[in-house]
UniProtKB/TrEMBL annotation:
Protein name per Swiss-Prot or TrEMBL: Phosphocarrier, HPr family
Matches recorded under CDD domains: PTS-HPr_like
Organism name: Leptotrichia buccalis (strain ATCC 14201 / DSM 1135 / JCM 12969 / NCTC 10249 / C-1013-b)
SUPFAM superfamilies in the record: HPr-like
GO biological process: phosphoenolpyruvate-dependent sugar phosphotransferase system
Top-rank taxon: Bacteria
UniProt-annotated location(s): Cytoplasm
Keywords, in A-Z order: Cytoplasm, Phosphotransferase system
A single cellular component GO annotation: cytoplasm
Length: 97
């Protein structure tokens, strides 16, 4: 299990299209992705678009992303998933302004 904290950088926050981008990336990996908005106690399945949208994270808010694999052989896959999501959220800003 590995986790990171990312900050929403795009102006419109976490709406339908960014939620779908996150879920699509998560589905590529054989790792469970849990997402929690910092300050709230609800954990969302990162492969569920509607669940991600319910978080309603705005620009500047932070998310805890946790990759959980069934075995230790998937640690590299956990790292790749979280790094790809960090790139999408903080660097590429969901390809928005």
């Amino acid at each position: 299990m590995k986790e990171i904290i990312v900050e929403i950088k795009n102006e419109q926050g976490l709406h339908a299209r960014p939620a779908a981008l996150i879920a699509n990336i998560a589905k590529k990996y054989n790792v469970k992705l849990e997402i929690e908005k910092i300050g709230e106690n609800e954990v969302i399945d990162g492969k569920n678009v509607m669940g991600i949208m319910i978080l309603g994270a705005a620009k500047g808010e932070k998310l805890k992303l946790k990759a959980v694999s069934e075995n230790e052989n998937s640690i590299e896959e956990e790292n790749r998933l979280l790094e790809e999501l960090r790139q999408l959220i903080e660097i590429d800003k969901f390809f928005e302004k």
